[in-house]
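Apologies for my clumsy wording, but are you able to produce some protein sequence, whichever is easiest, and the tokens describing how it folds?
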Amino acid sequence: MKIGNYRWRICALLFFATTINYLDRQVIGLLKPALEDQFNWSETDYSNIVIAFQAAYALGLISFGGIIDRIGTKLGYTISIVIWSIAAILHAAATGTMSFAFMRALLGVGESGNFPAAIKSVAEWFPKKERALATGIFNSGANIGAVAAPIMVPWLLGVYGWEMAFIVTGAIGFIWLIFWMIYYEAPSKHKQLSQEEFDYIHADKEEKEENVEPVKWASLFGFKQTWAFFFGKMLTDPIWWFFLFWLPSYFKERFELDLKKPSLELIVVYTATTIGSIGGGWLSGWLINKGWPSFKARKISMLSFALAVVPIMAARYCDNIWQAVALISLAAAAHQAWSANIYSIATDMFPKKAISSVIGIGGMAGSGGGIVFPMIVGALLDHYKVLGNINDGYNIIFLLCGSAYMLAWVIIYTLVPKLEEAKV
């Protein structure tokens, strides 16, 4: 029976929104050396700016998760992208450490709406067996944004200056907003959705929730499923933040990479993450289609991704940049594969009415870890920079990166070995 494919158009909208989301947040990492020279930043100064973003992002996730469950995905996403696009543009007016920290905080508040809205959209528009793949596809937008940034930002910096890099990338969000307002609506209200596709989307026989009051997010802390998602995000999200905000300067410090030119090395890393995101989402869905229980498919997939991050510990032994690129590409790709599945286990364990709130709680935990980890990174790098060997600081950081995912996997599957559904 022909069921239609409008749901994949929605996935495309989510993909481009996530691309813009990561493009905007990646800009400062690529401009870091130029901004350090202009504003005389130390590594600690820069880590404090990153922390301002993470703290605001964490608080915003808690707020946006509950808000989106109440006002709906369409309006919630609209508010989110308007705030973050304005904040991205306003970076061009920053004059020092404090003003950059303020703009990053405003950006963090706006960007915090992206994943609660996107994951809720996936839960609304896809049956369970397709959610990991849909999540992997839209989440790969993070990687495309990270690939586009090393191409666009150095060119804008060289030709127009760092201010224009923020203005141009920030303005792209308003273009996306036009398409969102035209094409998005909830499945139950969408006039272009066929009855066959609507029935396919709801084939899991989940309870109808159109007239059910959203769950209060504070009550969700009473479920072990929430804590499994909480710790899974808290331990692994900070590693991705490190890849975004410090990887360019790592290549510059360790291998003297010129960040004023488009960086093939960074493009390779973030291209690999696109493969990881889509492939990771596909793998668990493929196992489910083969007859595996969904909890077993997610469990085995996430274990393989956690193991794939471990080799990054060997980055300290790399003699040339391409050896490091290979190890970091594998770890970053594994992170995105992990991410596609950890979001999917949230949709497996919670009803649709609570998903945005749960994603907000997990995202807050990830940002909480993202506040602590930059403190560690900044302190380590400043300490070893004084000693004259900043690379020893990066070596310690890579050891932490390599062990985080296995610890997270053990915690998740100790708390919920079969990803039991929370009785909300």
Remarks:
- Residues 6-203+213-415 form a domain with the Growth Hormone; Chain: A; fold (CATH 1.20.1250.20).
- Residues 207-211 have pLDDT under 50 and may be disordered.
- The longest helix spans residues 352-386.
- The two ends are 34 Å apart (CA to CA).
